[in-house]
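Researcher: We're reviewing a set of sequences before deciding which ones to prioritize for further study. For each one, I'd like a predicted 3D structure that I can look through quickly. This is Glutamate 5-kinase. If possible, include the structure in token form so it fits the rest of the review sheet.
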Amino acid sequence: MSREQAGVTARAGTTPSGAPSGTGTTAGTGPGTAAVRRQIAGARRIVVKAGSSSLTTPRGTIDADRIDALVDVLAARRRAGTEIVFVSSGAIAAGLGPLGLTRRPADLATQQAAASVGQGLLVARYTSSFARYGLTVGQVLLTADDMIRRVHHRNAQRALGQLLDLGIVPVVNENDTVATDEIRFGDNDRLAALVAHLTRADALILLSDVDALYTGDPRRPGARRIANVHGPADLAGIELGGSGRVGTGGMITKVEAARIAGIPVVLTDAASAAHALAGEEVGTCFHPGEGRRLSTRHLWLAHATTGQGRVLLDPGAVDAVVRRRKSLLPAGVTGVEGDFAAGDPVDLCGTDGRVVARGLVNYDAGEIPDLMGRSTRWLARELGPEYEREIIHRDDLVILTTE
Ligand SMILES: Nc1ncnc2c1ncn2[C@@H]1O[C@H](COP(=O)(O)OP(=O)(O)O)[C@@H](O)[C@H]1O
Ligand SMILES: N[C@@H](CCC(=O)OP(=O)(O)O)C(=O)O
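Model: Here's the predicted structure for Glutamate 5-kinase, in token form for your review sheet.
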């Protein structure tokens, strides 16, 4: 998903928005804060995400001491009975040193190579570090592309569920070594929020190199810590800056992750992880939204994919898809752009070019011009019964407009 879509509300089928609502205060503790913190302390399943800067050194190697310190905290909570899913960034950052690089490379191929080297080193370290507590880790590498395909999605869910049932700590990252720009998720904050959905976690902890969300870049004087975020109103006027030394996404993706998660989320630094897990008043606590949540698959479709092309709709089709939640039929299509294949995510645009929805398309781009404007009955009669299918089925659609 593009950054500019960060404020867009996503809806699927008949499910209302999952965006947090309500107002709150940026200072002190608002109503319900203690209860939300207690929910974290009592959570039975927690996703913990650590950023690259918390796990690696400026020399581009893994930071064994900080990893061990974090594992001490996670293992203690695991041994106390809470299931932990650990989303670890740092593959690229940890592979820089071994490749003789001093900074994150711009080109994708070198990032892939660094990730391949760094991911192995990270997991080797987690394996030995958790073993100090008699705990076993299991590596789970996900791609955004995999996750929206119904079968693959169920597969990932089953694998994570089985690992947890077996008492194993899943260590999750994006599969950076094979992710191309088109199918790349790009940041682990939103990945962690979606993994929280996938595993039906009770809370999400985001660990960064900064101890909280601030009113502006904390490296500048005058920035104040925000203790609680109850809804979008609490974020008005806040400068959400870019990433630090080796991270990706900065605060924008963390705030968006909190919005997607729909469960209590605490953002703090790795040194405060134990306090955050204990429900203490550290970092920034994002209160869960009041709305019902989208299904995980639709969240992936809205937040983890990029449209591989565009399908242009006439006003009647926009109305059918957006307001009446119908499938998109060939009769309402006026144009097609891009070179996508059946099964790819595509953006649906109204006559003004605005994206109104995203869905998994049932045809290759090259097939659509011959179908446009035709009724399904005509298509079935002239071309065969297989052409009676929708361009996009309503179950594979997510609405990306607030209209
Ligand atoms: N309003 C803000 N509050 C806190 N941190 C901010 C803010 N704006 C920008 N930042 C920067 O975001 C960085 C964390 O993002 P990032 O580098 O992506 O972390 P990570 O690697 O942990 O995912 C911090 O180093 C901080 O300087
Ligand atoms: N998947 C990438 C990390 C992407 C990312 O979001 O990094 P960060 O902002 O440090 O959490 C890696 O392992 O290098």
